[in-house]
Amino acid sequence: MSDDTPRVAALCGSLRDGSHTRTALEVALSAAADAGATTELLDLREYELPIFDADRDREAAGDAEELAERVREADTVILGSPMYHGSYASPLKTALDYCGFDEFEDTTVGLLAVSGGAFPVTALEHMRSVCRALNAWVIPHEAAIPNASSALEDGEFVDPKLEKRVRTLGRRAVQYATIEPDPDSFESDQNVGAEGK
């Protein structure tokens, strides 16, 4: 493959063995690969990430530096999370807290959220807010998977329309991997915590 092949990484915010989030991200990555990207699933079960402590250097925080490097290398990052208490999951929050502008500024980001009940709209909104504060460019198309236990069966989507939505996210991750981002956001000017990670 050429050096300009888009690199798409998916960051899975679920630690469950039978995670519907992980399954959906794998579908999105499959679509990205079909569209010509190299892909990587960043499974947070494989990283030792202590609770974020601003007084601890990232290099001294388990696998945080390794994870940040993997995120930094991607042209597009797809964030995937189950919805917990109306927001996204704490493993993903911890992973994002160890990242900053170096990892996300001017990077294309796709969003995917899964819930056991109704549409996980607030989880998507919260992830979008974090990305805006990091000056990432978030793909307008997002994937929401409600009623996940009935939406997925044996690792496959039951509803082809839902699968199409997730696969579209994967294709958009490639299509917009090198888009020229919008000007910096107001939120990023206030985001001093993302400096000097």
State Rg. Answer: 16 Å
Please report the distance between the alpha carbons of the first and last residues. 32 Å
CATH superfamily: Flavodoxin domain
Biggest sheet details: 7 strands, mixed
Strand content: 15-25%
Average pLDDT for all residues:
92
Number of helices: 8
Task: Write the CATH fold name.
Answer: Rossmann fold
- The assigned structural class equals alpha/beta
H-E order: EHEHEEHHEHEEHEEHH
Number of strands: 9
CATH class division: Alpha Beta
Which blocks of ≥5 consecutive residues have pLDDT under 50? none
Helix content: 25-40%
What does the overall shape look like? globular
CATH architecture classification? 3-Layer(aba) Sandwich
Structure in words:
With 197 residues, the chain is α/β, with parallel strands linked by helices. It has one domain: Flavodoxin domain (Rossmann fold, 3-Layer(aba) Sandwich), CATH 3.40.50.360. It is 38% helix and 20% strand. The protein has 8 helices and 9 strands. It has helices at residues 20-34, 64-73, 90-97, 101-104, 121-133, 148-151, 160-175, 186-189, and strands spanning 7-12, 38-43, 76-84, 87-88, 108-114, 137-138, 143-145, 152-153, 156-157. Strands 1, 2, 3, 4, 5, 6 and 7 form a 7-stranded mixed beta sheet that branches. A two-stranded antiparallel sheet has the order 8-9. Helix 1 crosses helix 7 (160-175). The longest helix has 16 residues, at 160-175. It is globular. It starts with 6 loop residues before the first strand and ends in an 8-residue tail after the last helix. The mean pLDDT is 92.
